[in-house]
Design brief:
Structural class: alpha/beta
Helix content: 25-40%
Largest sheet: 6 strands, mixed
Mean pLDDT: 95
Strand order of the largest sheet: 3-2-4-8-9-10
Order of helices and strands: HEHEHEHEEEEHEHEHHEH
Distance between the termini: 40 Å
Length: 282
């Protein structure tokens, strides 16, 4: 990969001064609202980000933030960067490479990096080299595996549950998988994922994993198996090339995953929004 692309470039152009100021204030309020970790408790810090302005990603990131916060007891420890849903929802800070980096950095300031966990959910379009940032005609950029790994290394965040909903997101597994991390991706490194039509409420991956499997009081591995089965059924029934979602689970993740799962809600929450497969119907 070209070294310049690996650094994660971001380009902003043509935004109004008022728009920039309003978004900066929203972001600062969201960062300031995060609360410190609790001594003696394995806390999860949830960062849910939509990096593309197609409204499906904002809808998915917002609901994923709710589901993951509930599942992992992250009230006060959750930030959602998701822009406009296209349906009149209250504005949230824009998701872009800079805001993603700042949210992770703020979580690192507040968490016990020895015991607490960063839960990162990113939803966007993907390319064979990186996650894509795209905001209409005003914002462009990339978040590469090398860039995301460098952020974690700099900040000393070792316990990580990373869920990446994008085409080709399997490219992140070699750079981010280690003994203390779980990496779940919507597709293999050479495959696309599906369901990212702007009018959707969910991508296939987000619908299967977040909207169904992770709402249930079941272990993460079981949730991923359920999601993969759903996605496989949806793809086969619509004649689509399998996306082949990936999971890499480190040998030492039970130190943080077990206490988080022990305190999960005992009752499932109901799915929200229209099924991702609705967009494929005639």
């Amino acid at each position: 990969m070209d070294a310049a692309l690996a650094l994660g470039p971001q380009l902003e152009r043509g935004r109004s001064a008022r728009q920039l100021l309003e978004d900066r204030r929203r972001r600062e309020r969201a960062l300031d609202a995060l609360t410190p970790q609790r001594a003696g408790v394995v806390d999860a810090y949830v960062v849910s980000v939509a990096l593309d302005s197609d409204p499906v990603f904002a809808r998915e990131a917002r609901e994923a933030g709710k589901v993951l916060s509930r599942r992992y007891g992250a009230a006060g420890h959750t930030i959602v960067l998701a822009g406009d849903t296209g349906r009149g929802a209250p504005p949230l800070p824009q998701g872009n490479p800079e805001s993603l980096t700042l949210a992770i950095a703020r979580a690192a300031e507040l968490m016990d990096r020895e015991h607490d966990v960063l839960v990162l959910y990113v939803t966007t379009h993907g390319a064979p080299v990186a996650l894509a940032y795209h905001d209409g005609d005003e914002g462009y950029g990339l978040v590469s595996p090398a860039r995301l790994a460098a952020i974690f290394d700099e900040l000393g965040i070792r316990n990580r549950l990373l869920i990446l909903s994008a085409c080709y997101s399997g490219i992140f597994v070699p750079s981010l998988a280690d003994a203390h991390s779980v990496v779940v991706t919507a597709a293999a490194s050479d495959r696309t994922s599906f369901g990212c039509s702007a009018e959707n409420d969910w991508t296939f991956f987000g619908d299967a994993l977040v909207n169904h499997a992770l709402r249930k009081p079941q272990p993460l591995e079981a949730a991923v198996r359920e999601a993969r089965g759903l996605i496989d059924d949806w793809e086969r029934s619509n004649g689509l090339t399998p996306s082949n979602p990936q999971i890499a689970m480190g040998a030492d993740v039970s130190a943080w995953l077990a206490p988080l799962e022990a305190s999960m809600p005992k009752v499932a929450s109901p799915p929200a929004g229209a099924p991702a497969t609705d967009a494929l119907k005639d």
